[in-house]
Amino acid sequence: MASASDSAYDWDALRAVALSAMEKAYVPYSKFPVGVAAIVDDGRIISGCNVENASYGLTLCAECTLVSTLHMTGGGKLVAFTCVDGNGGALMPCGRCRQLLYEHSAEGMLLETVSGIKTIDEVIPDAFGPRTLAAYHNAE
Ligand code: THU
């Protein structure tokens, strides 16, 4: 369930940024544009769209471009995230992208999903991540 702090974010404004990113999607193959937007822990708003490839498996999900943008514009951790399809409807990030988002999430990061506002831990429970590797190496 959503954290008590979900109302701290302007989800309508964030979704508008995702919609505008979605318009830039390069999707000649699937014709399924995706736009994402996120708030970074320093207040920055970043976004991304999917970029496909004739070699289909090389397609970059919208979340990939968002994560690249995160680092290209100063790094930090994601605190809130939304994802929309070509109709502007909420879209659940694919499994790979949940893992991508987890890596760069602030503790308690919130996502607008098809079933309401959820935390990153709810959408990728018991995730493998940076702390898994650190715990392994600390135990050596
Ligand atoms: N897609 C994303 O960009 N993000 C997701 O989380 C789900 C899928 C894209 C990849 C591909 O360009 C299109 O949606 C259809 O699979």
Key features of this structure:
alpha+beta, single chain, Cyt/Deoxycyt_deaminase, Cytidine Deaminase, domain 2, Cytidine deaminase, 140 residues, 5-stranded mixed β-sheet, binds tetrahydrodeoxyuridine, metal-binding, 5 helices, 22% strand
Walk me through what this model shows.
- The chain is an alpha+beta fold and 140 residues long.
- It has a single domain, classed as Cytidine Deaminase, domain 2, CATH 3.40.140.
- The chain is built from five helices and five strands.
- The N and C termini lie far apart (36 Å).
- Tetrahydrodeoxyuridine (THU) binds next to α2.
Arrangement of strands in the largest sheet: 2-1-3-4-5
Question: What's the main sheet like?
Answer: 5 strands, mixed
CATH superfamily: Cytidine Deaminase, domain 2
Structural class: alpha+beta
Helix content: 25-40%
Number of helices: 5
CATH topology: Cytidine Deaminase, domain 2
| Overall spatial form | globular
Q: Give Rg in angstroms.
A: 15 Å
Bound molecules: tetrahydrodeoxyuridine
Query: What average pLDDT do the residues reach?
Result: 95
- Level-1 CATH class name: Alpha Beta
Distance between the termini: 36 Å
Q: Under the CATH scheme, which architecture would be assigned?
A: 3-Layer(aba) Sandwich
Structural domains: how many: 1
Family: Belongs to the cytidine and deoxycytidylate deaminase family.
Domain CMP/dCMP-type deaminase: 9-131
Cofactor: Zn(2+)
GO molecular function: cytidine deaminase activity; zinc ion binding
